[in-house]
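Quick one, probably user error.
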């Protein structure tokens, strides 16, 4: 049996071996959610020049000495204007974002001034040299590293790239994922009412959305019945297009479970028993692709909560590593419980919790078939095996997307 941390490390190591090498140039709009393939350095200083943080007057501090005083106003500079040097013993009317004229070293905010017309200003408060000036390069210096390769680009990063004048970036091509839901009982939502014995396929749409959110391209999302032949065929065909296949269900060793056998017939199978709950055995396999590369395969459990938890912890770690990301392991933090429980199980358990101002609340039904618990929760809390958890105790939590 593998411990949880060992399984995470193994997924990360495997993903790094299979990481995408291929990248392409994309405009900022199309780069959203993609993984940066090259480090980005800035060719400019941001801001590119000293500029005013306030509406007020720019002047040379030494022109006033130790007493408040009055200066002639020799120019007016709004944001976007070009500056000219400031004449001695004068002030420049200046507005937020406008460049500081050469010769000025201080900005006094207009709240600390009095003026009757545009030609003269009385400065009533003496600031220190440099007051209210945003220095050239205070955000980003020319030639400095701005973003590191392996980052998933979001709105903040795109803003930062635009601020240094970058309009196109090199990103890894999207990871191609195929999804295969197994089970004779499954019916697609939207394809009619259930007949006896049927349930709707929740994992298919759920896993697709999860992978899209991760920045993956879904090459197919199919359903196969519980028989070896069609399972094998589905996996084999999916491996042609996909970098990774995620299946759900049929991964145990029952008579109706064919995933393990299909993988043994098609490729190289690692069958993992991970000491956690929920999470039945997890199948990991490498399937040969026609071009000589390897298609990764993760066989997730069928119960929707187990499928999601195993995807969020293990498959996502593998996929992030394959995407070429810097940070592959799931993010974790700590929070105190607002509940007490006696954990009798022999395996550590990931329970569905919500973070509130009173601490972590726990969903009242933690069964692995209860998808409402996941939809309600905003994190999974890691509860060590055979432990009594007191109210107020700190637990490790894994945020849900
Ligand atoms: P299995 O691992 O195939 O034995 O499935 C375990 C449980 O999860 C069974 O109750 C299945 O009906 C259910 N299940 C399997 N796949 C799905 C799916 N795609 N959507 C919803 N429930 C599923
Ligand atoms: Mg099944």
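Nope, works fine. Designed sequence:
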């Amino acid at each position: 049996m593998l411990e949880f941390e060992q399984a995470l490390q193994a997924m990360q190591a495997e993903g790094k071996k299979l990481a995408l090498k291929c990248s392409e140039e994309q405009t900022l709009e199309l780069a959203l959610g993609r993984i940066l393939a090259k480090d980005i350095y800035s060719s400019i200083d941001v801001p590119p020049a000293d500029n005013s943080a306030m509406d007020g007057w720019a002047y040379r501090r030494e022109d006033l000495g130790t007493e408040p005083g009055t200066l002639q106003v020799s120019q007016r500079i709004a944001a976007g204007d070009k500056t000219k040097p400031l004449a001695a013993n004068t002030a420049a009317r200046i507005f937020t974002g406008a460049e500081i004229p050469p010769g000025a070293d201080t900005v006094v905010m207009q709240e600390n001034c009095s003026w009757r017309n545009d030609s003269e200003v009385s400065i009533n408060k003496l600031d220190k040299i440099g007051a209210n000036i945003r220095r050239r390069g205070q955000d980003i210096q020319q030639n400095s590293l701005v973003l590191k390769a392996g980052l998933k680009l979001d709105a903040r990063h795109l803003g930062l790239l635009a601020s240094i004048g970058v309009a196109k970036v090199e990103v890894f091509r999207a990871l191609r994922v195929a999804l295969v839901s197994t089970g004779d009982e499954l019916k697609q939502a939207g394809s009619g009412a259930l007949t006896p014995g049927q349930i709707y396929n929740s994992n298919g749409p759920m896993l697709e959305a999860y992978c899209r959110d991760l920045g993956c391209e879904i090459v197919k999302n199919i359903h196969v019945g519980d028989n070896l032949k069609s399972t094998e065929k589905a996996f084999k065909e999916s491996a042609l297009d996909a970098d990774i296949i995620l299946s759900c269900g049929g991964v145990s060793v029952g008579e109706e479970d064919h995933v393990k056998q299909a993988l043994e017939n098609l490729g190289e199978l690692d069958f993992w028993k991970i000491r956690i709950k929920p999470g039945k055995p997890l199948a990991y396999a490498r399937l040969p692709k026609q071009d000589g590369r390897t298609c990764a395969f993760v066989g997730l459990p069928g119960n929707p909560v187990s499928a999601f938890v195993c995807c969020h912890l293990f498959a996502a770690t593998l996929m992030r590593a394959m995407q070429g990301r810097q940070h592959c392991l799931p993010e974790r933090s700590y929070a105190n419980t607002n509940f007490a429980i006696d954990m009798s199980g022999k395996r550590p358990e990931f329970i569905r919790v919500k973070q509130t101002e009173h601490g972590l609340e726990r969903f009242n039904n933690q069964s692995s078939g209860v998808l409402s618990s996941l939809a309600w929760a905003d994190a999974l809390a890691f509860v060590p095996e055979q432990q009594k958890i007191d109210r107020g105790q700190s637990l490790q939590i894994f945020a849900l997307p």
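The chain has eight helices and 27 strands.
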